[in-house]
């Protein structure tokens, strides 16, 4: 029995020693399946609307943010096909971009109603400078399942991330 406990402790200690922490590289953190990264997102504009992506999918090129080596296929025309509903029949390839300094209106105070959250009472303009380092929150991946049980996600650490220059990636 003691032998089994010692083997289990040795195995668990080797697993914990391999766990990524705030001093690990982003590659190690992303490769650690026990972690979930809560990264900020960026809204990229194109001719057909906007696309929201993670900050890990973009790079800085001058005063703009763009997808790293990707273009998007955006549906430009749909037709109704019986029970299948709307089916896309025409696509266009776009390269969405955003400004390094972005502004958006954010609701900071809502009316509460009996049914839950009501309309917004106060809006504020939020300015984001994507050229500056931002904190990315990292939690236990198993904690994402606990939200269905009403338990908070277990916080692991925060790490600074700066969107890289496109010239440094290519």
| H and E order | HHEEEEEEEEEEEHEH
| SS element count, helices | 4
The oligomerization state is single chain
The neighbouring-strand order within the major sheet is: 1-11-12
Q: Quick check: average pLDDT?
A: 77
Q: Identify low-pLDDT runs.
A: 3-17
Report the β-strand fraction as a percent range.
over 45%
Distance between the termini: 56 Å
Give a description of the structure.
There is one protein chain. This protein is an alpha+beta fold. 18% of the residues lie in helices and 51% in strands. 9% of the residues are buried. The N terminus is likely disordered.
What's the structural blueprint in terms of helices and strands?
Blueprint: H1 2-18, H2 26-31, E1 35-38, E2 41-46, E3 49-54, E4 58-61, E5 64-67, E6 72-80, E7 86-94, E8 97-99, E9 101-113, E10 116-129, E11 134-140, H3 143-146, E12 155-161, H4 166-169
Summarize the structure.
This protein has 170 residues and is of the alpha+beta class. The chain has 4 helices and 12 strands.
What attributes characterize this protein structure?
12 strands, 18% helix, alpha+beta, single chain, 170 residues
């Amino acid at each position: 029995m003691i032998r089994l406990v010692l083997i289990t402790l040795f195995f668990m200690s080797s697993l914990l020693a391999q766990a990524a922490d705030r001093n690990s590289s982003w590659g190690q953190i992303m490769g650690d399946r026990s972690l979930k990264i809560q990264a900020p997102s960026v809204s990229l504009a194109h001719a057909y609307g906007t696309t929201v992506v993670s900050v890990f999918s973009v790079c800085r090129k001058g005063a703009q943010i763009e997808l790293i080596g990707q273009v998007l296929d955006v549906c430009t025309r749909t037709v109704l096909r019986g029970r299948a509903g709307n089916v896309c029949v025409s696509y266009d390839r776009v390269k969405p971009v955003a400004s390094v300094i972005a502004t958006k209106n954010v609701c900071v105070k809502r009316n509460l109603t009996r049914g839950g959250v009501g309309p917004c009472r106060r809006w504020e303009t939020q300015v984001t400078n994507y050229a500056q380092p931002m904190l990315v929150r990292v939690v236990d991946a198993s904690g994402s399942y606990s939200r269905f049980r009403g338990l908070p996600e277990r916080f692991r650490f925060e790490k600074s991330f700066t969107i890289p220059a496109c010239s440094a990636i290519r």
